[in-house]
Amino acid sequence: MVLISRFRRAAAFLEGLDASQRARVDSACLRIKKAQQAILLRGAAYLEHCGRVCRGLCCRNLKVDEIVSLYDFILVLASAPLSADLIAERARAAKGLQNADCVFLKDGSGPCLFPEDLKPERCIASFCFSTGLIRRELSCLRRSFTRLVVLVWWCRFQGWCFPAKVLMP
Ligand code: SF4
Ligand code: SF4
């Protein structure tokens, strides 16, 4: 319930924007996407380790509600709306609360249904080992997400278009 409600609030937020607001949000999302692409490029060896050696342990036995935020849904809805239906379907099926394999693993085993360069922040930015090679890229990613969060809240304080509950993470 938490995930699908978060997804709906992300959709409502985007629908409520006018063209200039939407352009700002798109620009913030594009920054995040570029930061993720830089991580994929420079951190290829790290990600290879996650995928091949560890086989994505991070996607298993977790509380998905604590991983995928409102801002992650805004990112994917704004940047890859074609993926949205499938993601919404899985969000609707999520039970929440208890630990389980992530609902966004395709057919329960993977790969992840989020586009490769539009992963939730915690999925792309959390490693269980030292990642010195991509320190700058990770900082850039965190700054880009912070920028999106601030922009979304700024929309609220501008009183542009949404009730406060739309923006609760
Ligand atoms: S970060 Fe660590 S635990 Fe997670 S998938 Fe990579 S190697 Fe596995
Ligand atoms: S959203 Fe994707 S990358 Fe993140 S935990 Fe779920 S399956 Fe893994």
Write the layout of secondary structure elements.
Elements: H1 2-15, H2 19-42, H3 44-53, H4 70-79, H5 84-93, H6 121-125, H7 135-157
Summary tags:
0% strand; 169 residues; 7 helices; mainly alpha; globular
Q: Mind explaining what this structure looks like?
A:
With 169 residues, the protein is an all-alpha fold. It is built from seven helices and no strands. It has one domain. 57% of the residues lie in helices and 0% in strands. Helix 1 packs antiparallel against helix 5. The protein starts with a helix and ends in a 12-residue tail after the last helix. 25% of the residues are buried. The model has no long low-confidence stretch (mean pLDDT 90). The structure holds iron/sulfur cluster (2 copies). The site of one iron/sulfur cluster (SF4) has 8 residues, from helix 3.
Return the structural class. Answer: mainly alpha
Overall geometric form: globular
Number of helices: 7
Name the hetero compounds present.
Answer: iron/sulfur cluster
Distance between the termini: 14 Å
Round the Cα radius of gyration to an integer and report it: 16 Å
SSE ordering = HHHHHHH
User: What is the count of structural domains?
Assistant: 1
Overall pLDDT level: 90
Major sheet description: none
Give unreliable regions as ranges: none
Helix content: 55-70%
Strand content: under 5%
Question: How many distinct beta strands?
Answer: 0
